[in-house]
């Protein structure tokens, strides 16, 4: 039972919803741009290892701050995991990420390792600075190229796709921070959202998420399709509901889940467009 409890706590500490979502999106995108099912699976495994390392490093580095504000949703702060356990898990996952990434080839591997290192820089330092958004823009912007560089004919992802991924990353960052603005500020974490306030953060998150979807839909070769416009409408509905919840239920995690939903819609358009 002790091992099972530890495993369950590690899953929670991995920030499972975004970890699963980013992994699935990366694999789906790789398949959509022409990778075989096996190659797309390899991309997904490399991304999964990287996301696990990022999630676990977050709970390791933030352990003292999480305890200070009573974050019962964090297994380390709640006493379900030791700092040593989650630190070890993060380092093992980081090593696996390097090996799995370079199994995709040197260009794809190098780009992915740099993207994951950028995400670690957020956890270790940049989250408490006005540049908190930068690792999200950089890391998510690189992610499509991990898939395209892993193809039989490697190439960098199109500029439109890269820009849309970067916008999704920053929008998700802003939406994710909204419920924790006060707790973060109490422990000295003052990233960009904390400095511009809840209202501006909400508006920026909605604008960026919708902008990402619009960029993909309207940038489809041959122009926007009917299905693309429906996807854009769905993204708009999700973004609007996220803004409403952020305004009237500020402690809820829904805005971040809605951001994941917008990302799913955007990836679906990309996959559909090939």
From TrEMBL:
Signal peptide: none annotated. Gene3D superfamilies: UbiA prenyltransferase. It is a multi-pass membrane protein. The keyword Nucleotide-binding does not apply. Its main location: membrane. The chain crosses the membrane at residues 91-121, 133-153, 200-220, 226-247, 254-273. GO terms for molecular function: transferase activity, transferring alkyl or aryl (other than methyl) groups. One of its GO terms (cellular component) is membrane. It is found in: Membrane. Keywords: Membrane, Transferase, Transmembrane, Transmembrane helix. This is UbiA prenyltransferase.
């Amino acid at each position: 039972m002790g091992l099972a409890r530890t495993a369950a706590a590690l899953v929670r500490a991995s920030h499972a919803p975004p970890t699963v979502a980013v992994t699935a999106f990366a694999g789906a995108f790789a398949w959509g741009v022409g990778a075989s099912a096996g190659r797309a699976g390899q991309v997904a495994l490399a991304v999964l290892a990287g996301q696990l390392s990022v999630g676990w490093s977050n709970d390791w580095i933030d352990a003292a701050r999480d305890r200070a504000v009573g974050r019962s949703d964090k297994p380390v702060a709640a006493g379900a995991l030791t700092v040593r356990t989650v630190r070890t898990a993060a380092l093992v996952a980081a090593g696996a990420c390097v090996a799995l990434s370079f199994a995709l080839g040197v260009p794809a591997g190098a780009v992915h390792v740099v993207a994951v290192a950028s995400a670690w820089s957020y956890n270790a330092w940049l989250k408490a600075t006005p540049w908190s958004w930068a690792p999200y823009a950089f890391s998510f912007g690189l992610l499509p190229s991990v898939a395209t560089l892993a193809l039989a004919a490697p190439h960098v992802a199109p500029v439109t796709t890269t820009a849309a991924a970067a916008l999704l990353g920053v929008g998700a960052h802003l939406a994710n921070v909204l419920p924790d603005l006060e707790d973060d500020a109490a422990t000295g974490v003052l990233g960009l959202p904390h400095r511009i306030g809840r209202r501006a953060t909400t508006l920026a998150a909605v604008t960026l998420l919708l902008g990402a979807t619009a960029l993909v839909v309207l940038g489809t070769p041959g122009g926007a399709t009917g299905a693309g416009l429906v996807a854009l409408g769905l993204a708009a509905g999700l973004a609007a509901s996220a803004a409403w919840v952020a305004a009237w239920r500020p402690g809820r995690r829904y805005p971040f889940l809605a951001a994941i939903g917008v990302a799913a819609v955007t990836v679906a358009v990309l996959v559909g467009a090939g």
